[in-house]
Structure formats: structure tokens, C-alpha cells
Amino acid sequence: MTTSGSADLVIVANRLPVDRVTDADGGPGWRRSPGGLVSALEPVMRANDGAWLGWPGGTETDLEPFVEDGLQLVPIGLTAEEVEEHYEGFSNGTLWPLYHDVVAKPEFHREWWDSYVAVNRRFAERAAEVASEGATVWVQDYQMQLVPQMLRELRPDLRIGFYLHIPFPPAELFQQLPWRRQLLEGLLGADLVGFQLPGAAQNFVRLVRQRVGHKTHRDMVYLPDGRTVKAAAFPISIDVDSFAELASSPAVEARAAEIREALGNPSKVFLGIDRLDYTKGIYARLRAYSELVRDGHLDVDDAVFVQVATPSRERVEQYRILRDDIDRLVGRINGDLGRIGRPAISYLHSSYPREEMAALYRAADVMVVTPFRDGMNLVAKEYVACRLDESGALVLSEFAGAAEELKQAWLVNPYDINGMKQALLEAHRAPEKELTRRMRAMRKCVAEHDVTQWASDFLEELAATRPEHGKVVRP
Ligand code: F6P
């Protein structure tokens, strides 16, 4: 067993919750990443001597642990080759498309797998060093699926949780993976494996029974050594209060008005905000919208579609191809259908701070979220959280995890272009009363399940596993 460290709660994630920036004095510094995960975990980390292990991005390999804004951060460097093979390769060229319904073709390369194993081992070894005796370790996401088992071998005293932020595919797809058994065994190192949806937990348990041969009953797996592993759903959410507060600020309100003004004060603003990813269905969505304009259901003088596409994983080939495809499509649509100063689509390839996102949400009459497959989709929840006056419509893919909660959205099959066109028109034409009824119900749902609740639900369930284990991390 490795000598133990002092952290009672260790978060293991592919990325650190900070980004590299240049300080005022020109030197390297860090800035907190905007995500909800870190804000949800921050209080529990502070209360439990928490440490967060992750890749700082880039290829710096000699970074020492540091404290940033009271959080203990442990950077784990990746070499250029590991970035290519572990991150861009196995994580985002194999697992990402495979777990998202093979929307793009997953590539299987043995060198990528070897790199994934090596990087997972380094993370597990480092976690074993920083975790105190009997600590809780919470491993995050698909880049780290081997860590639970590797860590358990090094430190059987730990309580280990794993949470998958993306979908977990049905057996028919998962079994394409040449390393399917190793991945399942990796996850089984955890005491609790969390998923976005109950269906994903069921897929996992079924695969464990079929492929690893362990006994299972409902959401429990029984290992030959007497240990049990629980698989359950914990749908993730957002920091609802902070979005609502942001949206209600006079600066955001003024910015929302400015955005509408800059768009030429159309009567309807449609909005899409996504990472530029082929799972998000951006291409099909823009086609559907453009056909409505072409066929005269919408007029560019009166309506505009604002599509924000945040640059992502730009060195992965499928992402480059997608970027070119969208660039061409937007160019063609605007060339064919736009008028001077009135494009059909206002396309922004850029990432924006939360304030600007909140202003966009406030400015948009119809939010369009149409992924082919998405673990949850937090943009849908952010939009709802920012609609303080209960106005606005949400058009949402059935294949986003959020659709299981936001049932009052206009739900669409993103593969069905005509169905999407119909839903866009209905949302666009819906009377105010109808919009309010739907938005009120969705706002209630989002308000009742925020990300802090998500984190404490998971940690409480994890604390309830292995009752013989003495030490408990209090959410
Ligand atoms: O949704 C999965 C996820 O890995 C998130 O955790 C992350 O914010 C996003 O995709 C972007 O991923 P990357 O770390 O590859 O930039």
C-alpha cells in the first residue's frame, strides 16, 4: 500500500478546475474555470481537506501542487504524445463517438489504448499518494474509467465513487470495443458508479453480467470477493441561483437589449449555443431553420438564428471536418437567403463568459438544443434558469438527458428535419399563455434540482456504501 496523504476528499478529473492565463505582470497564472462542477464541489472540498487532481491542459510536465483560491490543486502533466493518444485519441476519437451512438465512426488503435492505460495509471498513483487513510475519492468521466480499479489495488482502504458525465451506450454498441472487459473491470473498482440516466446504469449492469460474468440484481453487482458495486442515476444540473442572479443583473438586462438591437430588433430571436461537436446536431438544426426561411414561414427581416459554436478539440479530425461543413453551410444559407444587414444565421465561432451567455439567453425567444445524443445538456437548463419572467420557448432533442426532466419543452427527434421544422414553427407561434405554462413548469423542475444537490446526493449515496468503512465525507 502507498503511504497516505492528507486529503479526505480527492476529486480525480481529466482537467483541473482552472485554466492557464497570463497575469498582470506578464507571468503565468491560473483562473477558475466557469463550470458548475467546481462550484458544486467547492464547499465540500473546503470542509474536507479536499484535493483536485487533473491535467492543466498543454504539455507542461513539471508543475508542482498548488493552492488556488483556497483549493488544493494537483496538476498531472501529459506529454505531447499522451495528449495525442490519450486525450485526442482514445478519449475523444474512440470513446466519445462510441458512447454517443456512433454519430461519428470510432477509431480503435492499440497505441491509443496503451496511452489511455498509462495515463489512467499515473492519475491513480497520484490519487493514492494524496488521499488520507480511509478517504473518499470521486473519479470523474470517460477519460478516467480505469482509475477506480487501479486505485483500489493501491489503496483498498479508500471509498471510491465514479461518475460518468456522458451517455453510457447499450451493449450492442459498447461491445465493439476491443477493450470492453478491461473498461468494465476498471469501473467496478468503484463502490458507486453514477450515470446521468437510469437507462445508462441498466446498460452498465447488463454488460457486467454478460461480459464479466458477475452476479447482478437490479442496480447491484456482486463481486466474487464479497464486495458490491452499486450503479445508479444522478442527473447533473447547474448552479441555478448564480445563473438567476446573473440574469437579473441590470448589466445583463442591458446587454440583452443591446444584442437584440444589434440584430436589428427582429421580432423573434432563435438561439443555439453548443461546443462545436458533431454530437450536437448543429448542421441539421441550421438546415431545418433555413428551410423555414426559404419556404417563407420565416422572414429574415423579422427573425434571426444566432448560433454560437464554442471551439473544441480542434486537433481532432472529425472536429475539423465539422467546422468546415458548418462554415460552408452558414455561408451558403446566408448567401442564398440573407439581405443586406439581415443574415438568416448570425454565426459566432467563439467562447463567451457567463455574463454574455446569460444575456444571450435573455435575448432569445426560442432556444434550440437538438443534439443527436447528449449525456445531459446544461445549456437547456441554463436557458430555463435565466428566463426569470417565465417567457421563452425551448426546443429540445429527445436524445438529450435533459429531456427526461424538461418535459414541457417542444421535444424533437433531431434526425427528423420536418419534425424539427414543425416544432420550431410551433414554438415560434405559441401564444404567451402556453409559453408561460411550459416555462413555469420547467423552471420549477430546474430550481428543485441544482448542482449542489446533485453532488450531495452522490456523496451521500457513496457514504452509504460499505457501512463497515468508518470515515465519511460530509456533503
Ligand atoms: O461533457 C463532457 C466533457 O468532457 C466535459 O466534462 C467538458 O467540459 C467538455 O466535455 C469539454 O471537453 P474537453 O475537456 O475535451 O475540452
TrEMBL record:
GO terms for biological process: trehalose biosynthetic process. CDD domains: GT20_TPS. GO terms for molecular function: alpha,alpha-trehalose-phosphate synthase (UDP-forming) activity; trehalose-phosphatase activity. PANTHER family: BCDNA.GH08860, TREHALOSE-6-PHOSPHATE SYNTHASE. Keywords: Glycosyltransferase, Transferase. Belongs to the glycosyltransferase 20 family. The keyword Glycosyltransferase applies. This is Trehalose 6-phosphate synthase. SUPFAM superfamilies: UDP-Glycosyltransferase/glycogen phosphorylase. The keyword Nucleotide-binding does not apply. Gene3D superfamilies: Glycogen Phosphorylase B. One of its GO terms (cellular component) is cytosol. It comes from the Bacteria. Its EC number is 2.4.1.15.
